[in-house]
């Protein structure tokens, strides 16, 4: 008896010793370059602080916006039974409406059912599903990401174990598109490469190709048989017009590409916390669409089974009710216009302060972001002395600029830039 007790105790003891060491090798992960900006902002107690970090829409008071169209959609679905059995119907409706938004409601791919579409956890989830799909069915392929791109694209394709490459995109001296280098990289990539493209309001640069340039890119993709994967996170924010912002994708569609597209409603419906999105992959025929959809569903099933239903119901109601949709279209334009006004005000304010730098790019760039050209040192200075927060690459979310803080921001930028880049 005594002997038995001793053996049990010593077994427990050695197990607990081992257990204590289970996680000793885990080191803290590096901070995320975008979410860590929000953390720093929240920790700052200054009343004048400004958050230009995360790309989520804010109103002229700097507050998150609840669009009236969502209030209307909420009223319309109030009292609905959120039964388990309706979730797949809600999800299908969302996909059906999302693809119309991006490919155009009269497009042949939609009429002919030549797409595989699944609901996804916002744009990130849609990209992640696609990256996994790419790895399974083209295991040797790489992904070409624009340089620079949204920092999370690197995480997503890395976690799916897809090798990454970059293609030229931004010209720091011009603060615009490096089109020649971009086209060279497209031409020099091995035939049949996967490329990630931002269809509008490029994140982080705010620099988009012109219509003519998109046509050339699409043509070259055809020549090289590249696969275009679009991450549509800001539809409506570049021009204020949802159709116009889908022009690049429609050009690729016209040219007969079988493309893929991630869509997010985090920004253009102000639903960041609800994670509503869609992944679609265009197919040769319906049979292929059925096969691809089943594979995407299989991937999602193992990752998170199915997404939550409430935000999805809101978005599909907005998109399918003609009156509520018309209101949304107007509200998207309103958000885009406010950002545009802030761009102009910031630029004028800097000029009025006598800044000798060329701030033309503030209004040349489009969408939610201004790639300011501020150096990491100047970004740190802005945070330390002026309580102004942005990502280290100098990306400013223009949604954080308001009538009330624009002059303060201009003054701070003028202060940190007037002694040159390394002051
Ligand atoms: C951003 O780039 O700030 C947004 O896409 C939000 C995010 O999740 O990173």
Provide the fold topology.
Elements: H1 2-20, H2 35-43, E1 50-51, H3 68-77, H4 87-103, H5 108-111, E2 115-121, H6 122-137, E3 142-147, H7 151-159, E4 163-168, E5 170-171, E6 176-177, H8 179-188, E7 194-197, H9 211-224, E8 227-232, H10 247-254, E9 260-264, E10 276-282, H11 286-303, H12 310-320, H13 322-352, H14 360-364, E11 369-371, H15 376-386, E12 388-389, E13 395-397, H16 406-417
Parallel strand pairs: 1-12, 3-4, 3-7, 7-8, 8-9
Antiparallel strand pairs: 2-10, 5-6, 9-10, 11-13
Helix pairs in contact: 3-12, 3-13, 4-12, 6-7, 6-11, 8-9, 9-10, 12-13, 13-16, 15-16
Question: Based on the structure given, which CATH architecture of the largest domain is correct?
Answer: 3-Layer(aba) Sandwich
**What is the CATH superfamily classification of the largest domain?**
Type I PLP-dependent aspartate aminotransferase-like (Major domain)
Q: Rough shape?
A: globular
Neighbour order of strands in the largest sheet: 2-10-9-8-7-3-4
Distance between the termini: 78 Å
Number of strands: 13
CATH level 3 topology of the largest domain: Aspartate Aminotransferase, domain 2
For the record, the CATH class of the largest domain is Alpha Beta
Would you tell me the overall average pLDDT?
93
For the report, how would you describe the main beta sheet?
7 strands, mixed
Count of separate DSSP helical elements: 16
Tell me the Rg in angstroms: 24 Å
Number of domains: 2
Order of helices and strands: HHEHHHEHEHEEEHEHEHEEHHHHEHEEH
Are any ligands bound, and if so which? (2S)-2-hydroxybutanedioic acid
- Report the oligomer: single chain
Q: How much of the polypeptide forms β-strand, as a percent range?
A: 5-15%
Give helix % range: 40-55%
- Residue runs with pLDDT of under 50 for 5 or more positions: none
Supply the helix-strand structural class: alpha/beta
